[in-house]
Amino acid sequence: MPSCSRKATAAKRVCWIGGIMAVTLFVLFLVVYAIPGEQNNRTAENRSPALSERFFEELKSAAGVTLGRNPKAEILMVIGPSCPHCKKTWKEIRGAVRDGLIQVRLIPLMNTSGDLKTSALLLKAENPLEAWDRYVEGDLFAFEGEADGEQAKAVMLNNVLMEKWNIKATPCIVYRDKNNRIKIVKGEPRDVREIFDDLPG
To answer: How many CA atoms lie within 13 A of 85 on its CB side?
Structure first.
């Protein structure tokens, strides 16, 4: 499936980002080296139901914004703001979000040099649905202002979580199906209607 690779990035404010990077690198060290056993180098796919459930719950707890109002039919969608496949996927599902058929929780990452600020401002947005929709349509002023350190740190910790679960591409869609199983779609979905039909309620 088409997807965007995640890349490391530098940011404008060296002191601000330096402090956040120090915290993030420490957490990443714990994830990769200091946490023993099955938690290292795991993937969220092709694992036991228990691991899939743990991944799902950790993703639900990650920093993000909820778009739409139908928690019974919820999709968790990991995105990079600059990822064209993420934007295309959003265009295919936004109608269902606006119509109340599904609920989407966007979990933003930093894939490229501009993603950290955009992702942090998405977390800060008063109306994330309208701001994200405008951004996807090419509005360069959809996200204005400055993000604070806490939001940037939250975005970077989202990246750490993706490393922990070996999620290397965006978009990544995770949801609970009609049979209460966790499903994971890496990259651009072949047909979003298949996901809609697989959701409960």
So the answer is: 23
